[in-house]
Amino acid sequence: MLLDFTGRRVIVTGGSRGIGRATALAFARAGADVSICARGAETLEKTRGEIAAVGCMVHAATCNLADAEAIKTYVAAAADALGGIDILVSNASGIDNTGDSWVDCLNVDVMAAVRLADAALPFLARATDASVINVTSISGMMPSARDPAYAAAKAALINFTTSQAVQLAPKKIRANAVAPGSIDFPGGFWDRCRTETPEVYKSVQDGIPLGRYGKPEEIANVILFLASPLASWVTGQTLVADGGQVLRA
Fold first, then answer.
1. What's 23-68 look like in SS3?
2. What is the H or E stretch that residue 89 is in?
3. Catalytically annotated residue among 74, 150, 201, 213
4. What angle do CA 78, 166, 151 make, to 5 degrees?
5. pTM of the model
6. 174 DSSP assignment
7. Domain at 9-241, CATH class
8. Nearest one of 232, 233, 111, 236 to 168, comparing CA atoms
9. β-strands 173-180, 9-13 pairing
10. Are the C-beta atoms of residues 137 and 188 closer than 8 Å to each other?
11. Residue 150 annotated as catalytic
12. pLDDT tens digits along 87-135
């Protein structure tokens, strides 16, 4: 079933690559107008061009999502460019930042989602069938010796989504989360792992019941479903999309 988002206005953070890029493109192809932000200007501009080629209105801006004031400025500019906000997708992560992983993950994976929703609330409250979707991870559902800060932040985001859903329900705004498993895309963690530590790459792949890594487009499809009228009575949920990976954790 093809979903129609014509006339809808969508923000996707971390929208220049991976899941964010795939999500922004999917919304655009479904008729939405889209705003994306990311830290890197070069990849952001490339993705902006790809979205513009679809034919929708597109707004793009660099934004440090660890900066509360930068978030307010970005959301206001996005709402002005799009004429409002109907859907907010909080997708960015601090896992690839170069500083303290606890600070980075808590600031970007958790607090950015909180601040983005707060900044977007006045616009979402005026929309019809408004929706917030937080991109978390199956890492938030299990312990992680390798990336404890990332796992803890994603667990917090899962819990926050349930509270957010209760808070926003009186305003008729739905809030849900998507928990991807291991997603392979050019320049991403698993793409680097394939060449740098192929034995780890293969070991993880062998542990996925469906026998392969996920694609960003497969997560984008889940996000579009949750933002669509097909999920009109779904709120406060975390939908796992991982090829069965968490079942063997």
1. HHHHHHHCCCEEEEEECCHHHHHHHHHHHHHHCCCEEEEECCCCCH
2. strand 87-90
3. 150
4. 75
5. 0.96
6. E
7. alpha beta
8. 236
9. unpaired
10. no
11. yes
12. 999 999 988 766 789 999 999 999 999 999 999 999 999 999 999 999 9
